[in-house]
């Protein structure tokens, strides 16, 4: 399959941080689109080294979110913001014949952004679905009260001219309808 969905860091310690029900619902709908078109879904699971982290390997927070975890065709473990650094993700994508990577998940300004840039650097077409990402951080975290983190990251990636950035409606218009047409014609 030439396209793959990456579901980044959808883990208990992040999802339970605040109400991410909208993001989870969007991610699940996109997962179902990929499943319906027989395209692989790869979950990325982050593990922190710090013992007191909610994403430490021995904590419940590091577990994949139960509502979505069974959708995973593959799980790639990582310890840095990039899902490519010291992992087998690049080899897995190449073995699947991947040409295009779709990005969803958490945390927008770290793991999603770093993975998107790393995928582009490896020659993949990258589609970043902005509103199917979320973050535990706020504008206050960065001392920028009114900062919309998702929009800011999406704008930076879009302006780079290297990464396709879409909202859910654009994704559905461009890809979901195309995949449904292909499925009906086969």
UniProtKB/TrEMBL annotation:
<dbReference type="InterPro" id="IPR036380">
    <property type="entry name" value="Isochorismatase-like_sf"/>
</dbReference>
<dbReference type="GO" id="GO:0016787">
    <property type="term" value="F:hydrolase activity"/>
</dbReference>
<dbReference type="Pfam" id="PF00857">
    <property type="entry name" value="Isochorismatase"/>
</dbReference>
<dbReference type="InterPro" id="IPR050272">
    <property type="entry name" value="Isochorismatase-like_hydrls"/>
</dbReference>
<comment type="similarity">
    <text>Belongs to the isochorismatase family.</text>
</comment>
<keyword id="KW-0378">Hydrolase</keyword>
<dbReference type="InterPro" id="IPR000868">
    <property type="entry name" value="Isochorismatase-like_dom"/>
</dbReference>
<feature type="domain" description="Isochorismatase-like">
    <location>
        <begin position="4"/>
        <end position="140"/>
    </location>
</feature>
<protein>
    <recommendedName>
        <fullName>Isochorismatase-like domain-containing protein</fullName>
    </recommendedName>
</protein>
């Amino acid at each position: 399959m030439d396209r793959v969905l990456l579901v980044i860091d959808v883990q208990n310690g992040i999802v339970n941080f605040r109400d991410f029900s909208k993001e989870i619902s969007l991610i699940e709908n996109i997962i179902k689109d990929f499943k319906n078109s027989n395209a692989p879904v790869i979950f990325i699971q982050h593990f922190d080294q710090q013992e007191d982290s909610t994403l430490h390997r021995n904590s419940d927070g590091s577990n994949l979110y139960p509502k979505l975890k069974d959708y995973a065709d593959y799980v790639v473990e990582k310890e840095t913001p990039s899902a490519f650094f010291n992992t087998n993700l690049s080899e897995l994508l190449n073995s699947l014949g991947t040409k295009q990577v779709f990005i969803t998940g958490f945390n927008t300004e770290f793991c999603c952004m770093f993975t998107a840039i790393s995928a582009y650097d490896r020659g993949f077409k990258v589609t970043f679905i902005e509103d199917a990402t979320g973050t535990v951080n706020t504008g206050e975290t960065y001392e920028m009260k009114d900062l919309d983190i998702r929009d800011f990251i999406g704008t930076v990636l879009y302006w780079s001219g290297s990464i396709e950035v879409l909202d859910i409606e654009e994704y559905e218009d461009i890809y979901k309808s195309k995949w449904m047409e292909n499925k009906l014609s086969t």
